[in-house]
Amino acid sequence: MRGDGQGMYPPPLRLAWTIWGLGALLYLFAFYQRVAPAVMTDALMAEFAIGAAALGNLSAFYFYAYVAMQIPTGVMADRYGPRRVLAGGAGIAAIGSLLFAYAPDFGWAGAGRLLVGASVAVAFVSTLKLASHWFLPQQYALASGMALFFGVVGGVLAGVPLRFLVEQFGWRGVMGSAGVFAALLCVAIWLLVRDDPTERGYTSHHQNADKPHGHAPVLAGLVEVLSYRNIWLLMLAPIGFSGAVLTFGGLWGVPWLKQVHGLEPKAAAAVTSVLLVAWALGGPLLGSWSQRLGRRKPLYFASGVVALAGWAGVIFLAPPLWLMVVLLAITGFASGNIIIGFAWAKESLPMRLMGTASGVVNMGPLLGGVFLQPGVGWMLDHGWSGEMAGGVRLYDAATWQAGFGLLFATVAAAVLVVPFVRETYCRQTG
Length: 430
Fold this sequence. Notes:
By secondary structure, the chain is mainly alpha-helical.
């Protein structure tokens, strides 16, 4: 051991992936909660006697709180370390999950969704913070992509498996068990996670880990982060790329497939899961390819164009089911380009600001859910003809297409943003 408190050897990969993995598990849980309403739309609309706009808002309560917490989360991760932030988030998520599961009315259900969204908002940024300490810099894009992979695994679990469990045990019992899982994860994180390898006697991969430094005032750090143009632009682009995936895969894809294409609920959930699985695969692969290319902009832009073309085919061409599944797979894979954006943002400013910057940039994907989930719901209710079945509103194909047109327009705007981001050539600033 060295006299300065830092070990002579880097942490073994097994330990690094275990530490990182517990943070990623909370992100898996976050994603599960994010998209779970998609397979419970009928049950929630009937249970609380609400239409599409209200359901969109109930689902989006999660996003409202998640987005509001992103900047505080980044600041807390920089100031208090990811271990405390992750453990606290998991504990509060358990309470919010139980509140939603056993809510007596719409108001309590919304409060539960708000609490869950606010608490799990710490997961992604804190896991990125762990990655910057426990992995080599060139492994950061891979670790970021794998975090998205873990998240989307949660989304897939909230598809066909969740639909099956809901049919067997009811949505309240299943969502209540999710709260128990979050409580157990809180304990595991507190016992096992450490902020930096030096706390386990190893050399840190963070370039400033052995340099004593105080914490800059919160507002000053935030102002400094926002002074970098790349951070603003890399926050705006995922509003389209990620927002479209979360809106389709996380809420409106399943009812659209049921009402327009006549699919059974589990089959519809399986189709939307294709989008999410492809998204999970696209994240780490596109991030790794960008690292090998030594540039961020070309691959981010090209994949954005592919995603835009894919959404155009799904929404406007009315393809047969097999072709739609193919298009959703391609679109999901290309939309994984947001992982390039996280690595790009990290390289765009000094490492000491990484937590706050990650929080700002991570607002983008969730802002898409904030605007698009209720936006599509509002469009659906606006075009509703009054038809209902089993207490659930039914919408025709033209109304669905108008609602999903919002997705296409937002992705198109995201593609136009990318050329204005300054290239970093995969090199760290400061």
